[in-house]
Structure formats: C-alpha cells, structure tokens
Amino acid sequence: MKKNTKLGESPAKTELVKKTVKSEAPQQAMPTGTRVVEKAKGSDWDLKDRTYLLKGSTTPLTHVIPSSGIYYFDEEAGYERELKYTNNQRTVFMDEFKGDHRLSHIVFEDGILIVPKEKQTLQKLLSLYHPLKDQLYTEYNPVAEASDEVDSIELEFDALTIAMNMDIETVEAVMRVELGSKVSEMSSRELKRDLLLFTKRNPALLLELANDGNVQLRNIGIKANELNIISLSQDQRTFSWTSTGRKLCTVPFDEHPYSALAAWFKTDEGMEVYSSIEKRIN
Hints:
Elements: H1 11-24, E1 38-39, E2 46-47, E3 50-54, E4 62-65, E5 70-74, E6 79-83, E7 106-109, E8 112-115, H2 120-129, E9 137-139, H3 142-164, H4 168-179, H5 188-201, H6 203-210, H7 213-226, E10 230-232, E11 238-241, E12 247-250, H8 257-265, H9 268-281
Antiparallel strand pairs: 1-2, 3-8, 3-9, 4-7, 5-6, 10-11, 11-12
C-alpha cells in the first residue's frame, strides 16, 4: 500500500513535484566535499531552494495566497506583528520597513511554488511566519517524505507478516469486521486472499484488529447467532439461548450488541456460556 505523505497529497502530485523540482533546480557542479545546503551564519536556517505545495487533491492553474493584511504573533516581542511581502524590503515585518514599499503577490501555479534561495524574504515568510502554512499549503520536504515512505513500507511488511501467519479462525474474525456475515459463505482461500488485500489497503487497521482480543469474541457471538445457538431480540437489547429462551445478557444503551456480548463473555458467567458455544460451533 502506498501511504500518502504528511502533506495530504496524492501519489500523482508527489511524483509531479519530484519531477518539477528536479527539472527546475539549478544544475551546478559542486566541488568534492562541499555541502549543497549551506548554513546561514548564526542560525539553523538552511540556504537552499524551497518548494511549497497547496494541500489537497486539487491543483488550480493559479492560486494567490495573501501577501498583506496578515499577522504573526512574536513570542519574544509579546505581540502580533503585521506582515507584508514586498519586492523592495529585506524583511516581511512592516514595523521594520524603511521607506516606501511595493507589494508583491504570492502565486502558486498548478499547486506548486518554487522559491529560489536568493529570495530569502519570501522563503522565511512562507516557512516561518505565514498563518496559512500547514493549513492551505505546506513546505515540501523530500527527507521527511522518504522517512514516511520507509515507515509505511515497514508497517505494511509487519502487517502482511502477521496476516500470512494467522489461523483461519482469526482470519474469519478479522474479516467479519470488514465484510460482515458474507464471510460465512467464503472458502478459506477466499478469506485469506481478501485478508491480504485488506492488509495492503490498511495495514494499521489490520494490526489493530489482530491485537484486539474482542474481535475473536465478537466473531464467536455472531457465528452463534447465525447458527441459531443464541438469539438477539428485535430491539437489539437482549441475547438469549435460542433453544430455551433463557436470557443471557442485556446490551447497554448506545452500545453495539456484539461488542457488549464480547465484553460479557469475559465475565464469570459469560466465560461458561462462551465455552459452551465454542463446543457447539466446533
């Protein structure tokens, strides 16, 4: 399964970004041992070209974000400072402007804005101060994306390993969460196939279900109901033995019937009933 990045972008957009960054980045030979990313003196700010992406799956032809009338709360100063992006000032803080200022626009094209390292004022506005960062747009970080992809692959691998080693009873219990009563009509091979497909789509959920002890208990309860061993009342509030009509347990208000039954199976009385049901099913 290909996990989306933290940016909330589709894989197609991510590939487009990679190609765009590669094609538009300056191709300069670097001496051996020279860092491509330089450090600004006295800070942790990297001098480098930066790419910004609109969030979401849509990529409008052009999109302008506010470059004036926006504010940044300066914790050190203790108050909000008005921001404005201009083409003739060396800062975005209006209280530091000197002389006249000419407003510049911030325009994303096809959902992407590439800012060269020479435009430090715009970079710092977009990366550090703009209130719409991580809401309307985000800064593309290939290192973080690669780390996310590694985490995603490892998660999928762990989930598939667990899925491959599941016994058929657990497979049925897990897939019943996904497919409902349909699992009763499926062969073991069909169940295993659907489990692996489900795992690739959502490995995190598979791991969660595999570690949920109540999944197996719910599955037994559902099977017992399907086999007419126990009955659930029409109002979904009471479980009873089908053969005698004797009440087993009451479903608490606003709780799923089979989740309540699974919890009841863990009580002293419920454990005896569970053991009896297991014997009848098997």
